[in-house]
Amino acid sequence: MNSLPTHSTPHPSTTLPSSLRRRRPFGLYMILILLTVQGLLGAVLAALFAISALALPGEFWATVEPELYNVAVSLLLLLITVVVAFGLWRYRGWGWYGMMLLLAYYMTTDVIGYFSGGPDYVSMLLNVFMVFYLNQREVRDLFEESIAAEVGA
User: Cα(65)–Cα(143) distance, rounded to whole angstroms?
Assistant: First the structure.
């Protein structure tokens, strides 16, 4: 006769809380912090724009009108950045893809700036590091589970 218990023990990954099963890597925290700071600074600038538009509407529109397109693009990028940061924080596949698209946009503007004589080397370096980091296997695996769940749903 077999004296061993016949009950089966659950798989360790099913007994651990989800926070212990999937640890957010340090680099991802840094990217999230950078995106959050960028979003907060953008929100402050947007609030200052709104205050100046209300306080001095004539002067504000006379000053902003020539740059209205750039202001609108900056506000749109701010909104996209906040949404992408939320997606990255929640391990959503669309957050990873959104970040890749944002980085592609930023790197394109960096290249244009480089060839037009105004290179921003810090931005170029940070963007390249973020692309390489987000494409590492351990980081991609965090988001691939979400992508598989989104496709399967």
Answer: 41
Tokens standing for 107? 């790197």
Compute, in degrees rounded to 10, the torsion defined by CA atoms 87, 89, 92, 96.
70
Give the model confidence (pLDDT) of 71-103 as tens digits.
888 889 989 999 999 999 999 999 999 999 999
Quote helix, strand, coil % in the chain, to nearest 5. 80, 0, 20
CB burial readout 13-47, b (16+ within 10 A) else e: eeeeeeeeeeeeeebbeebbeebeeebeebeeeee
Residue 110 CA to residue 133 CA, distance in Å, equals 19
Q: Give the Cα separation of 113 and 21 in Å (integer).
A: 43
Contact of 99 with 88, CB cutoff 8 Å? yes
pTM of the model: 0.72
Q: pLDDT band at residue 38, thresholds of 50, 70 and 90?
A: confident
